[in-house]
Amino acid sequence: MNIALFEKDEIGKPLSIKDERGEHLVKVLHKKPGDTFTCGVEGGKAGKATITKIEDGFISFDFKAESEGKPLYPLIMIIGFPRPIQLKRLLRDVAALGVCQVHLTGTELGEKSYMKSNLLERGSARKMLWDGTVQAGSTHLPELFMHETLPQCLKELEENFFESKKYALDNIRPVGSLKNVLRKDTAAGMSIAAIGSERGWTNKERDLLEKSGFVLCGMGCRIMRTETAATVAASIILNEKGFLE
């Protein structure tokens, strides 16, 4: 836990030592009254908290804001619904990388049952985004959106991010490698990366992506899992855009 992250209505209240955060502070970090720890408010400021007392099963602390928190990067990820177990890891990792939005979408070759996963209904998806944000020592969670089809997803994004730079990962008919395409595209602003589900895109979806302004890009000859491709693609884009320097 690289930051103790709190919701807005929690920050001024004592923290139970049975809470995951409280347990980590006391049992793992061995914090005592007078000690400090990195702390922040979800979607807000980050800073230091000083423990004032630990008694009756609660940790009392004073929070002092020091910054606006680590900003999210101008990168939106469109991801075909993967298996639920992969989705957990994927959401955690892209949140740690700092993407600003994640759009999960059904695809023509994707397994339809994945879209009905209890992971999404029980709020576990938010928990994975939270965990990735904490791993990064950040306070800002990516926004999460869900779409039944790729056309619906692209239509919504087109309305809000018309001038974005768009890249779709594809190992069937790429025009070039993602890295080389990015090196020719030095423009600042929002980027959108689309990664298909396990079986990839159909030709109809490839045509739709290209019509919507996406450049079909490859990442070598190896076929990756959706979660791996999303993490690698995000890392390459953020690096080439200068955010990982």
How are the elements arranged and paired?
Layout: E1 4-6, E2 15-16, H1 20-28, E3 36-41, E4 46-55, E5 58-67, E6 73-80, H2 84-97, E7 99-105, H3 118-121, H4 124-135, E8 143-147, H5 150-160, E9 165-169, E10 176-177, H6 178-184, E11 191-195, H7 203-211, E12 215-218, H8 226-240
Parallel strand pairs: 1-3, 6-7, 6-11, 7-8, 9-11, 9-12, 10-12
Antiparallel strand pairs: 2-5, 3-4, 4-5
Annotation keywords:
245 residues, alpha/beta, 7-stranded parallel β-sheet, 8 helices, 33% helix
Can you walk through the features of this model?
With 245 residues, the protein is of the alpha/beta class. The protein has 8 helices and 12 strands. A 7-stranded parallel β-sheet has the order 8-7-6-11-9-12-10. The protein has a 5-stranded mixed β-sheet with strand order 1-3-4-5-2. Strand 6, helix 2 and strand 7 form a beta-alpha-beta unit. Helix 2 packs parallel to helix 4 (124-135), helix 2 runs parallel beside helix 8 and helix 6 (178-184) runs parallel beside helix 8 (226-240).
